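Supplementary Note 3. Input sequence used for the single-chain structure prediction.
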Amino acid sequence: MVDMGEMAAATHVVDVTDADFERVVVEGSMQRPVVVDMWASWCAPCRTLGPTLEKVAGERGGAFLLAKLDVDANAVGNALLQAVQSQGIPTVVAFSGGQPVNMFIGAYPEEEVNRFIDEILPTEAEVVTEEAQAVESSGDLESAESGYRAALAKDPTNAEAAVGLARILVRRGDVEEGRALAEPLLPDPDAARVMAVVRVHEWASMAGEGPIWEARRAASDGRWREALDGFLAAFDSDPDAARESMVDVFDTLEDDPLVKEYRPKLAARLF
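The predicted structure, written as discrete structure tokens, is reproduced below.
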């Protein structure tokens, strides 16, 4: 009878060499984590750890790829040992996003191996957040909002979910809830862009006089070209406020053609 656990492990375990290390490990880790098991035939602890890693790989059902690397037969193995400052095997190095992110040395028991794998895999909240980001990009903001809220229910500290939800909220006018989510995350660049949208919304209710405020009120009304022209004209009287206001409008408009048109005009006034 075929052992289904062994079949599952076999589909998620590969041998890597100098010839394919870059493709399988470095490039492959851009799609899912890759765990490199550095071993040698003479190493007794390697013979203990190897089956444990393969068992865990099978149980995780493809959440990560186990790449087995014979250090005696492949120069890349010794280079990697030096890079992670390990002087012995078995050494296990996890790659994610093309970079080594975690490691351990020695024949860990199965419980510790599972704990190591847990640390390199995305959490449930991170998976839900990534799905919500894809849905948001497709234009389904209602479903994206539900996804971000679900992610935050699982992990209230998930910054990407908080920023994603804040982004949706402020763009539909729920400014205070969006601000409460984004402001504590500053100076994160995505949170800063959300706060730019918040400021543009708030210009409508703020008192002020002069060219800057005339341009800001035009922006809060959605009269973007009038606003941007007004900010350029206000450079002579208040260059810092004009620059900051234009950047806030750029962040609010995102990919609008006006941003491409007016960025060079702003640069010309600055330099």
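The chain has a mean pLDDT of 94. DSSP finds 14 helices and five strands in the chain.
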